[in-house]
Amino acid sequence: MAADPGHARQAPDDAGGLGPVDSEPDARFTFANERTFLAWNRTSLALIGGGLAVARFLDIGGQGLRLIVAIPLIVLGVGTSLVSFRRWGNNERALRLDQPLPYSRLPYLLVVGVAVVGLAAIALAIVDVLVGHV
Amino acid sequence: MSGRDPEPTSGTVFHRGLAGERTALAWSRSALSLAAIGAIALEAGAEHAPHALGYAVGAVLLLLAGAAWAYGRRAYRTTREALQAGAPVARPGVLAAATAVTSLAGVAAIALAIVSALA
Does the ipTM exceed 0.90? Predict the structure, then answer.
């Protein structure tokens, strides 16, 4: 399993474009990585679905106001999906090269994004009450 | 302990069957989330013009959700086989497709959201 220096990273198995590997990692880790990606994927879909639901069902005065909450949520969902796929690839590469898993800011970015949208929604709701649409 | 695989993988013993089951469950959960978006899209299509947009997006997403669910179920079996054969189990192509579907669903959702707000 240890690659000799002269043939390091020459293993033919590159698992569909991930690049040369030193060794096939423990399958458990690859499965855990995939399930982690799918968990992020569900989060992305929930954000997209939530944003669409806001656009469809939120009863706030102005027509365009819902979009202030809906569009950022959907964009957050798409961004999360793209970043999580890149993270999956980085993790898989680290597993194959027997390196520590790279740090990802994805959870932090997601929390900040959702918090900002949440605050915007609260602000919108307050404005809506004050203007008297409820 | 019955059910524990006697042949260790990489020096450790783990339940190969459970890995496939968790994978299938993970895919079915994503499928469910995708189907929910499809359902909302169908409702949007029924509510206001352009009806075709909502219906088309909803139908496509529901079909893709079904495909994802079916793929997860197939993975339940092929995962176990791949493990026993010692074959690589990373699926970058499939996960890239899942990312693409999710991103396109997001674009469609933005279109539907704008149409809804303008209606």
Answer: no
